[in-house]
TrEMBL record:
The lineage of its organism: Bacteria, Bacillati, Bacillota, Bacilli, Bacillales. This is DUF1129 family protein. The chain crosses the membrane at residues 93-116, 122-142, 163-184, 190-210. InterPro entries: DUF1129. The keyword Cell inner membrane does not apply.
Length: 213
């Protein structure tokens, strides 16, 4: 079956589960779909577990009794045996995210320096904060989204509060560390035309990265 068909079958099963079993299964679904598991394999595994749970429910058995008390631990164990997506896409994203952030940063610095010459003085720590902040933003957005059980598309956050809390704590730590970093990193002068050239090179590079398959 196709991924879309599997998702719809899973949704049909969820509608037949008791409230407690559905909540358990929802956590499993979110954990699997927010991982790097191959989509088709992940949905097939979820469908099989849903069928197994529905059958067990008819016999009076709960999800926690069938799969264990912790749904996240159960899903994490399954991920160890499911095929993962290739790293190439993730690696390209790791280059694209800071590249894009720095391109826009240099563009803003260059344009600002045209009006305010003092803006040519740039704290090197700020550039580092931009890169780290870009990674943090992407991570937060990924954790704050889940797939709609019917269509498999991003939907408003609902689950995985543990992961979201972890990211928020990390952001607080990052913000504190950034303020300390800006106090000790050197200030350098980047002429406005250099900033604009760097921005131009960055935008051209983004186009090339987006076109790669």
């Amino acid at each position: 079956m196709s991924v879309r068909t599997n998702i719809r079958e899973i949704n049909t099963i969820r509608d037949q589960l008791s409230k407690k079993n559905a909540e358990y299964f929802d956590e499993v679904i979110v954990h699997i779909r927010s991982s790097r598991v191959q989509e088709n394999s992940g949905e097939e595994w979820l469908l099989a577990r849903g069928q197994e749970l529905l059958s067990a429910q008819k016999q009076g058995k709960s999800a926690s009794k069938l799969f264990g008390e912790d749904p996240v631990a159960f899903a994490s164990e399954a991920l160890l045996h499911l095929p993962q997506r290739k790293v190439s896409g993730r690696a390209r994203l790791s280059v694209l995210v800071p590249w894009t952030a720095l391109s826009w940063t240099f563009l803003l610095l260059g344009l600002t320096a045209l009006i305010v010459p003092e803006a040519e003085e740039t704290n090197t720590g700020m550039l580092l904060v931009v890169v780290i902040g870009a990674f943090a933003l992407i991570e937060v957005l990924m954790r704050l989204t889940r797939r709609d059980p019917e269509e498999g598309i991003p939907a408003p956050p609902k689950f995985n509060l543990r992961g979201i809390g972890t990211v928020l704590i990390a952001l607080v730590i990052l913000g504190t560390a950034s303020l300390m970093l800006l106090r000790i990193t050197p200030v350098i002068t980047i002429p406005y035309w250099v900033s604009l050239i760097l921005a131009g090179v960055g935008f051209v590079g983004q186009v090339l990265l987006f076109r790669r398959r």
